[in-house]
Amino acid sequence: MTLPINNIICKGLATAAVLLLSLCAFGQKGIGERTTSTDSIGNANREVMHSTTFGLMGVAAVYDSYLRPYIYADGVDFRIQRETARMTNLMDGRISNQTFLDVNIAADLMTDGGPTWYTGGIRYSQGWLYNFRDCNVVNPAERTTRRWNYAAGLQASGYLGGVYIDRSGNNPGQAKFDVMVNATGIVSYTFRCKKHRPLILSYQLTFPFAGAAFSPNYGQSYYEIFELGNYDHNIVFANIFNMPSNRHRLLLDIPIRKGELRLGYDIQVNQARFNNLEYNNTTIDFMIGFTKYFYRR
Amino acid sequence: MKTYRYYILYICVMLCTLLSASSCVVIEGDTLDDTQKGNFEALWKIMDEHYCFFSYKEKELGVNWNEVHDRYAKQINKNMTNAQLFEVLCNMLSELKDGHVNLLASFDYGRNWSFYEEYPLNYNDSIVNAYLGHDYNIASGLKYRIFDDNIGYVRCETFEDGIGNGNISVMLQNLATCSGVIIDVRSNGGGQLTKAHTLASHFLDKSVIIGYITHKTGKGHNDFSKRDTEWLHPSDGVRWQKPVVVLTNRGCFSACNDFVKCMKLCPNVTIMGDKTGGGSGMPFNSELPNGWQVRYSAVVYYDHNMQQTEFGIEPNIYVEMDGKDTDKKRDTLIEEARKFLTK
Fold it and tell me: Which of A203, A219, A280 sits opposite B298 (nearest CB)?
């Protein structure tokens, strides 16, 4: 059986591997010296990180058995991610808070005669992570002495999106909505390149754990749901088994002047199996953006 | 030396990511087999898993979908052209005798329109136009005028137009002096169900159960949800209280069939003409590996007696076009309706 999604992932990862290795080499030569937190901010040692990254011309594929029994591949994905991470005072400062806003839109822009399908959505999440090391998980200054850092926790997330196919009929699209508790974990590795400021390589894995999601029933029309108000298991209990989604972020923060250049690789495999309907929306984006660290008491 | 360790670390992380991501992909859909046999099997399977009238069609027409597969699979071979494949697939779909089942390719539109093609049309466009004349009014697609005998005439060709409460209220106000009204929906192939219900709601005094609706909940031919009641509520606008005749023929299909179903429950309404064409399923669309689109009935509508209307609705009064009237440029159905309303 052909696995188109896996092919996409393999191609994307290979591309990203080359890019990241190249950029790593660039980063080692071009970065400036990073000032440590104690040097520059005195007692203000709780870190706040803001990051905005853009994914341009990523790849996307979508499959929704409500619309057709095959996957739509060859999509182009555009993505914006806004992340804020801050250390809190909870549990002796070991709990960090992560706010994440993720917006994307994808379509098969390369199709002759214009796009035939579109998909997109907005996801907002608030996460609380326990840091296993006695340091800020994103604090570059402290990482110079503790290279490996680990954090794990839970996210509350909400998603609103959909899939639309450019064709007539009573099932041209599918709405997506879920409110989930996600499990998430971060592994980060901080390293120096000669005497330059440290770089941070981090990997975050997130997968939905439990929650509620919207889905029409197998052959149910939206006319029945929204015009007639006929409910038929349209809000379903979602869990790791019927919603085996997973989202991966591989990030590299490269210090440049007073900020950081963020390069990343974002893989999202959003899947669901509700009411005998199947759904898969896979996107792979090479992300680029900027990160800024602040410190507060 | 230390730098190379970093590179090795990166590669390891990426390999882990690759393995992790790949192993987590579990939902992928069917394989795209864009061969003649692959497209045939895909069409058969789409219908097998989603079409909602198999049990009914087996009972009424003796259609056994597995037997249909075996019979038509013999006609498929890898050397046949797309046109030949299209013909075989359309023939297979025609077994269901469903006007909502279609196959759409760039070069043709596969259909079974036997619901009206095998019957007298009972409608002549040029004669109807002569009745309308040139000074008729149009309210969002509804053409109407008042005949000399003070009978209002409304011609509704489709429910695709954006017919709204305002349009209908103004039209009924303009016809208020008439002693009765004829609503001619002959050869109306349907459109939006909500528009059909909007028009019908102006002839109701109280809410009525117009039928029941059910959809498939799984791949089995008998996997259906519970039947939900479907109500029609009176319009907030002008409500017609005088006699009404609805003219029908075999060309009344889909949403128009549902309109007739609703009007048959309204007080002071008489259905006159021929049996409607039916089409009580709500169609969904899907696709074959080669890009051809397939349309099929997915949601079942029953009438208020829990009976199928897939093969049409009987009129209260059967009237057929008389050839002699046609020769005289007279529409037998309109004339009979006028007599009925003026007596």
Answer: A219
